[in-house]
Amino acid sequence: MTVELTSLHGKRILVTGGTTGIGRATVAQLAEAGARVLTFGRHEPELQDSLENARQYSDTVYGLVADVSSTDGIAKVFTEVDAQLGGLDILIANAGLSVEGAQDTPDSEWRNAVETNFLGYIASAREAIQRFRTSGDGHIVFVGSISAEAQSPGTSVYAATKAGVETYAKTLRKEVMEENIKVTLVEPGSVGADMQEKSPEEQRAAIEKHEMLYAEELADTILFALTRSPRTNVSVVRVEPRLQKKG
Q1: From CA 235, how far away is CA 121, in angstroms rounded?
Q2: pLDDT in tens, 74-108
Q3: How many CB atoms lie within 10 A of CB 209?
Q4: CA 69, CA 82: separation in Å to the nearest integer?
């Protein structure tokens, strides 16, 4: 029996927070798979780096500077989705900020993290579903974190946002599955990224010791979920380095 797969060629895909880490790696792999991709981030230099990295595979990769934490930012992004992609087939919600406990963080900082990591996911999914209902199907991938369960000291706000994403993703799937909309939750363990407390050198050493993953390994996981058969919904995937020490 030949396993039926879903091609990503020509698919219209939005990657939130696609300028660094997992998002940047995912944008590149989607471009290599022939998808039409729109991404965004808060900073122009990182955006241009991500676009240049992805355009070695395809020129159908677009980007803008935007902030998913605000309603204006969401509106700006989805206006661009309609203009550049002409609709949407897949949303990969990945934009996130690292944050410690509210008691040790300025009020504006922890509130911005909550609005980005949790409310931004909900708002992005809402807009995506409106477009999926027009086209007749769709797929949402939420990039969460094992922090939702690890609950390590010093991560209370971040862990709470990821626990919210976990619950939202699992419940949303039940709400939209009859509309031919898939929902996938990917929960990474320790992954090399700009938001890591470790320096780049320390991250490389941790990866070498199997204590941390490359961002590309999570991008590969996301593409695995997206390319299963139409009858298959990879609902939850937890991906950790072999020697994950927390969680």
Answers
A1: 17
A2: 999 999 999 999 999 999 999 999 999 999 999 99
A3: 11
A4: 20
**Torsion sign across C-alpha atoms 98, 197, 53, 240:** negative
Q: Which amino acid is it at 84?
A: Q
- Note if the pTM is more than 0.85: yes
Closest among 17, 90, 93 to 50, alpha carbons compared:
17
Contact indicator for 50, 29 with CB cutoff of 8 Å: no
Distance in angstroms (rounded) separating the CA atoms of residues 60 and 224? 21
Question: Which CATH code of 3.40.50.720, 3.40.190.10, 2.30.33.40, 3.30.565.10 fits the domain covering 12-239?
Answer: 3.40.50.720
Q: For residue 42, give Cα distances in angstroms to 18, 39, 85, 100, 228.
A: 10, 11, 21, 20, 32
- Length reported for the chain: 247
Q: Where are the alpha helices (DSSP H) in the chain?
A: 21-32, 44-54, 71-80, 107-114, 120-135, 147-150, 156-176, 200-208, 215-226
Catalytic residues: 158
